[in-house]
């Protein structure tokens, strides 16, 4: 049972996540030779104040 975790900044719409889930599932089914029912996609929405790159919080980059 493949599990794909997608971590991204919060703010994506339901429609965007549904499309991502669909295409990720299709790719996993094609490449890993599994079934859609056995493929799990988990979305982790991360607030920008909880994400840092290069020692700088993403929430501080736009300031």
A few lines on this structure:
This protein has 63 residues and is of the alpha+beta class.
SSE layout and pairing:
Blueprint: E1 3-9, H1 14-32, E2 40-46, E3 52-53, E4 56-57, H2 58-61
Parallel strand pairs: 1-2
Antiparallel strand pairs: 3-4
Keywords for this structure?
alpha+beta; Macrophage Migration Inhibitory Factor; two-stranded parallel ribbon; two-stranded antiparallel sheet; 2 helices; 4 strands; elongated
Query: SSE order, as H and E?
Result: EHEEEH
Cα-atom radius of gyration: 15 Å
- Structural category is alpha+beta
The appropriate CATH architecture of the domain at 3-45 is: 2-Layer Sandwich
Unreliable segments (pLDDT under 50, ≥5 consecutive)? Answer: none
The outline comes out as: elongated
Main sheet attributes: strand count, strand direction, barrel closure: 2 strands, parallel
Strand content: 25-35%
End-to-end separation in angstroms reads: 43 Å
Q: Oligomeric form of this entry? A: single chain
Number of distinct helices:
2
Q: What's the arrangement of strands in the largest beta sheet?
A: 1-2
Assign the CATH topology of the domain at 3-45: Macrophage Migration Inhibitory Factor
CATH C-level label of the domain at 3-45: Alpha Beta
What is the overall pLDDT average?
95
Amount of helix:
25-40%
The CATH superfamily of the domain at 3-45 is identified as Macrophage Migration Inhibitory Factor
Number of strands: 4
């Amino acid at each position: 049972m493949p599990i794909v975790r997608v971590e991204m900044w919060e703010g994506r719409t339901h429609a965007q996540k549904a499309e991502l889930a669909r295409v990720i599932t299709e790719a996993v089914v094609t490449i890993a030779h599994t079934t859609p029912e056995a493929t799990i996609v988990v979305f982790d929405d991360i607030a920008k104040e909880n994400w840092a790159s290069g020692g700088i919080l993403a929430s501080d980059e736009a300031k």
